[in-house]
Design goal:
Layout (H helix, E strand, L loop, with lengths): L6 H14 L12 E6 L10 H19 L3 E3 L3 E2 L4 H10 L3 H18 L10 E2 L3 H16 L3 E11 L4 E3 L4 E2 L2 E2 L7 E10 L5 H7 L7 H11 L1 E11 L4 E6 L10 E4 L4 H9 L1 H12 L14 E9 L6 E7 L10 E4 L5 H10 L31 H14 L3 E7 L4 E2 L1 E2 L9 E4 L2 E4 L25 H4 E3 L2 E3 L3 E2 L1 H4 L3 H4 L12 H6 L2 E5 L8 H14 L9 E5 L5 E2 L2 E2 L22
Helix pairs in contact: 3-4, 8-9
Length: 580
C-alpha cells in the first residue's frame, strides 16, 4: 500500500466504486436489521455545518453497526415542499420544481463528496408525485377512519407568508419561519384528529429511549389535566361553561373572564363597537401561553352578569386578553385570591378578592384547608374537590372532566408549493379521491411566470359541471410525518408500504434537533399510530431511540437556512476539476 494518502485520487476512486456497486443498498435478509435515520434536509441548495455534524453522527453509527454484522438501512431524501422554494421561485420567476431539483442535485453531490454511506436507491423527494400520491391516499384513508374533518375555525395567520400556522408553529406570538406577528383569522380548514390519540401519545412516550427533556416537552404540550366544568347562568338567559382544575376554590370566584375569541365575546362585539375594537387590539397582540403571566392584563367589562352556581350571587363578566380560547372552554372563573393572573387582573380593575383556602400570603395557589366555603369549610382541598364535583353533578350544573391542551391539527395551507389536498367538491359536498384518481398534481408553470396560490388558477380548480378542486395544500409537516416509513418501501410504485416496512420498522435510532420535539416528532408519532390502526404498519412507535445532537451556532444563534446565517462546508470538500 502506498503510504502517501492522496485524497483527490483515493476518495474519488473509492466513492465511484461504492456508487457503481451499490455497496450500501439495504435489502431485507435474515440478518438482524438496524435502521439508522437522520432527519432529512430541506433542499436550500447548500448544506451547512449543522447538516454535516448531524449526518456524520448517523454515518458513524451506521458504519459501526455494519461492522458488527447488522443489516443497516441508512437512506436519504429531501423535505422539498415549502415556502422558501415558493418565495425564491416568485422572486426569480422560475418554476419551484426546477429550483428545487437544482438545489437537490447540488446538495446530493456535497453529501456524496463527504463520503456518507447512504442507500441512494431509496432516495425520495416529498415534491415528487410518486411520493405525494401515497400521502394523498393516506389522507383519504384517514378520512375513512374518522380522523379528518373540515370546519370554519379561528386560525393563526402569518401576514408575511400569507398562510395558516398550526399552534405549534407559533413561537412567542410570531411565525416560526417568517418571524412576523401572528394574527387571528377565521377561515375553513381541514383538520386531523390528533386529539383522538392524546392519551396514547401521553402514555406510550414513557416507553421510549428518548431524552427526558424531549419527553417532558411533549407531555407538557399534550397537557393532560383533571378538572371540572361548571355552568353559569347569564343575565341574558344564556349559559356559559367554565373549566377549572381547582373546583375547591369555587366559593372564591368574584368574576368570570372570557376569551376575546369566545362566541359570547364575538356576539357582543357585533353589537358594540367598543368591544369590537378591544377584541381587535387583543388579537393584534396575540402571544404564547408562556408569556401570558408576564404580559399586561387587559379587560373589558360587559353588561352581562353571571349567577354563581352555588352561592347564587351575581358576578361581573369580563372579556380578558389572558384567557385562551384553545384551552378548556375559553372561559375562566376568576379566583384572584388563589391565582396570580386573576389576582393581577382584579387589582388592576378593582374587583373583589375573596380568600377561600388558608394561606399566609395572597395570591396563593397552594392546596390547603377551605374557609369561607359554606358547608365545605374545614375540608382539605382534595377532599373538597371530590365532594364539590359530586354536588355539581347531582345538581346538573357541572361535572368532573379530563382536559387536554393539545388541539386538532389544522393541515390546510394557502400556498402553491405543497401537496394538493385530494378533494373535489360537487354541489359543495366533498368527494375524497383515491386509487387511479391520484395523484392530484400541481399545475405546471410556464417559464417566466411566478407560482400563484391554487385558488388563482382556474384551469386547476374549475372542473366544470358544478365540480371544483380543493385549492389548499398540505402543511409540509404532513409530508415529513410518515417519510421514515416510505423509505422502507421506496422502490415499490404500487403500494405506499409493503412487507419491507414490517422488516425495517421501527427506526432504531433517529438523529435530529430538539427543536422538533413538539412539531415533527409529535406529528410522526400520531401518524404512526393512525397507520397502525389502518393496518399499514406494525408497532406503536416510529422511533425507538432519539439522539438530539445539539445545534451548530453562528454569532450566538442557531444556524438555519431561514435565518440566512449558514456556513457552507464546500470549502472543506475536495472539489473535482469539472465541478469548478
Amino acid at each position: 500500500m502506498n503510504q502517501e494518502y492522496n485524497p483527490q485520487k483515493i476518495e474519488k476512486t473509492v466513492q465511484k466504486f461504492w456508487e457503481d456497486n451499490n455497496c450500501y443498498r439495504a435489502i431485507k435478509n435474515d440478518q438482524k436489521k438496524f435502521y439508522c435515520l437522520s432527519m432529512f434536509p430541506y433542499p436550500s441548495g447548500k448544506l451547512h455545518m449543522g447538516h454535516v455534524r448531524n449526518y456524520t453522527i448517523g454515518d458513524v453509527i451506521s458504519r459501526y453497526k455494519r461492522m458488527r454484522g447488522f443489516n443497516v438501512l441508512q437512506p436519504m431524501g429531501w423535505d422539498a415542499f415549502g415556502l422558501p422554494a415558493e418565495n425564491a421561485a416568485i422572486q426569480n420567476k422560475v418554476d419551484p420544481q426546477t429550483w428545487t431539483e437544482k438545489n437537490i442535485a447540488n446538495m446530493k453531490l456535497q453529501l456524496k463528496q463527504l463520503g456518507f454511506s447512504y442507500d441512494w436507491t431509496k432516495e425520495l423527494k416529498t415534491c415528487d408525485p410518486n411520493y405525494y400520491r401515497w400521502e394523498q391516499e393516506m389522507f383519504t384513508l384517514l378520512q375513512d377512519n374518522g380522523l379528518v374533518y373540515k370546519k370554519k375555525s379561528l386560525v393563526n395567520w402569518d401576514p408575511v407568508d400569507k398562510t395558516v400556522l398550526a399552534n405549534e408553529q407559533v413561537i412567542d406570538g410570531k411565525g416560526w419561519r417568517s418571524g412576523a406577528t401572528v394574527e387571528l383569522k377565521e377561515i375553513d380548514q381541514w383538520f386531523l384528529k390528533i386529539t383522538d390519540y392524546a392519551d396514547e401519545l401521553l402514555q406510550s412516550i414513557d416507553n421510549l429511549d428518548w431524552p427526558e427533556n424531549v419527553k417532558l416537552m411533549q407531555k407538557n404540550w399534550i397537557g393532560k389535566s383533571y378538572g371540572s366544568e361548571l355552568k353559569f347562568l347569564l343575565s341574558n338567559n344564556d349559559e356559559i361553561t367554565t373549566f377549572t382544575t381547582r373546583v375547591d376554590t369555587i366559593f372564591g370566584v368574584t368574576f368570570l373572564a372570557v376569551s376575546p375569541n369566545h362566541p359570547m365575546a364575538q356576539n357582543l362585539a357585533s353589537e358594540n363597537d367598543d368591544i369590537n375594537q378591544f377584541i381587535k387590539k387583543c388579537n393584534e397582540m396575540k402571544m404564547a401561553e408562556a408569556d401570558m403571566a408576564k404580559a399586561e392584563k387587559l379587560g373589558f367589562k360587559t353588561s352581562v352578569k353571571a349567577k354563581h352556581p352555588l352561592s347564587g350571587i351575581d358576578l361581573e363578566v369580563w372579556i380578558a386578553n389572558y384567557v385562551l380560547m384553545d384551552y378548556g372552554t375559553g372561559v375562566v372563573m376568576g379566583v384572584p385570591a388563589h391565582d396570580e393572573r386573576d389576582f393581577e387582573f382584579a387589582q388592576k380593575y378593582e374587583i373583589p378578592i375573596k380568600q377561600v383556602i388558608e394561606a399566609d400570603d395572597l395570591p396563593s395557589s397552594a392546596k390547603g384547608k377551605l374557609i369561607n366555603s359554606d358547608d365545605f369549610d374545614g375540608e382539605e382541598s382534595d377532599e373538597a374537590i371530590d365532594n364539590i364535583n359530586s354536588l355539581i353533578e347531582k345538581n346538573g350544573i357541572g361535572n368532573s372532566i379530563i382536559n387536554y391542551r393539545l388541539r386538532d391539527w389544522g393541515v390546510s395551507r394557502q400556498r402553491f408549493w405543497g401537496c394538493p389536498i385530494p378533494v373535489i367538491y360537487e354541489k359543495d359536498k366533498p368527494i375524497f379521491l383515491r386509487g387511479d384518481e391520484l395523484p392530484v398534481e400541481l399545475p405546471k408553470i410556464k417559464a417566466g411566470d411566478s407560482p400563484k396560490p391554487l385558488n388563482q388558477n382556474k384551469n386547476f380548480y374549475d372542473l366544470g359541471q358544478g365540480k371544483s378542486r380543493e385549492v389548499d395544500t398540505f402543511d409540509t409537516f404532513v409530508d415529513s410525518s410518515w417519510y421514515y416509513a416510505r423509505f422502507t418501501s421506496a422502490e415499490n410504485n404500487k403500494k405506499a408500504l409493503d412487507e419491507n416496512s414490517e422488516y425495517w420498522l421501527p427506526v432504531d435510532i433517529y438523529i435530529g434537533g430538539i427543536e422538533h420535539a413538539i412539531l415533527h416528532l409529535l406529528y410522526s408519532r400520531f401518524f404512526h399510530k393512525a397507520m397502525r390502526d389502518m393496518g399499514l404498519v406494525n408497532g406503536d412507535e416510529p422511533f425507538k431511540k432519539l439522539l438530539t445532537q445539539g445545534m451548530v451556532l453562528k454569532d450566538g444563534t442557531k444556524m438555519s437556512k431561514s435565518k440566512g446565517n449558514t456556513v457552507d462546508p464546500q470549502n472543506i470538500l475536495i472539489i473535482m476539476e469539472q465541478i469548478l
